[in-house]
Amino acid sequence: MHGHRRAQGANSSSVEFDDKGWPCFPDREDLSAEFIRLLAAAQEGGSTVSECWLTLSRINLASEISWAEEWIKTAETNEARAELSSLNGNLITARRNWLRAIGYFHAAARPFGYSNDLLECAVDGMRRCAKNYLGSRVPAGRILSIPWTPDLTLEACYLPSAFREDAPVIVCIGEPGSYKEELIAKYASHANERGLSLLTVDLLGTRTTLSPVCLESNRFEAAMSHVLDFLSEQPGVDSSRIAIVADAWSSSLVARAAASDARFAAAVCDAGIWDLHERSFFYRHASGRGRAGCPDEPNAISRSIDCPLLVTAGEGGWLLPDSLIEFGDGLGNVHQDARLILFRRAETAAMQGHIDNPTLANEVIFDWLEDRLRLRKGLS
């Protein structure tokens, strides 16, 4: 393949490397992205580089069962280390190993569609390690169940601030197919170091699958209002400083939620770009006018978001960079405090969801959140 190098593992299919040095597995874009995410998670404590490559060397990439089995083994090794460290009173090491185990169990849960037993093992392990991690923190975190509909609750992980009372709260929302536990490794350190509380919310609730009817926009927006209601009643929460963050922003769910409830103090999301993109795609497909481009002007969703608004995107993501820049320019013209930041390939964090360098993107995001929430406190 042009522009790629090839390597062969002991038990795995051939692994190719693109011109940036990232591994890519032929015909398995999903596994390639997951492995890149795992490597980059090492910066946040969600993995170690050596364990990632060692595990990959044992995997037959042609077998999804092998992929899941080997990541589960690595996760269980880290979990065993955590339990031993906890018994010996070494809680810092225990937390580090539980955090890595969460990342490896999450890798085993991706992609979907293989053995239910393996998926159940991976999800149960991820949730078990997250619960132990939360319980070992100071102050301890909690698993919450927040009412959504009469027959469905939202599961959430709550990590209170270690430094202040009446702390601002960052609500991080994973897209469908994501898990609240993986968001702990991605965001916890950034929130904790700034004295912010963190709530990671799982759209899957208590289930491993969720029917499309549960993701109707009005229901999701109502769910986020329930989250705000719930948080406002919790001790140690400044209800006037609750911000919402969309992880990876591959839909406009969070943007619609921010537009529907004026109580959010700040929002980091797609500002409705994906909603416009999908509409554009279907319109062009139906009219036979070729492939869809990216919308280049604000829409009703972005215009309805009253709080400070940040959009981050990567030059190597799914949408066209030039159109994203135009969208950002238009956003600034119609919104009092809105900004779009585009990460270039030359600086990394340029892939979809910033999976190649989440640290760089999260530093920008949480600095912006800290500034906006501090300003809001100063005005109150």
Brief summary:
The protein has helices at residues 29-41, 49-57, 64-87, 91-108, 116-136, 180-193, 217-232, 253-260, 273-287, 300-304, 321-334, 358-379, and strands at residues 5-8, 14-17, 23-24, 142-149, 152-159, 167-173, 197-202, 237-246, 266-268, 309-314, 338-343.
Structure write-up:
The chain is α/β, with parallel strands linked by helices. The chain has two domains: 136 residues, Up-down Bundle (de novo design (two linked rop proteins)); 242 residues, Rossmann fold, CATH 3.40.50. Helix content is 47%, strand content 17%. It contains twelve helices and eleven strands. The strands form two sheets. Strands 4-5-7-6-8-9-10-11 form an eight-stranded mixed beta sheet, sandwiched between helices. A three-stranded antiparallel beta sheet has the order 1-2-3. A hairpin with a 5-residue loop joins strand 1 and strand 2. Helix 6 packs across helix 12. It is globular. The N terminus is likely disordered.
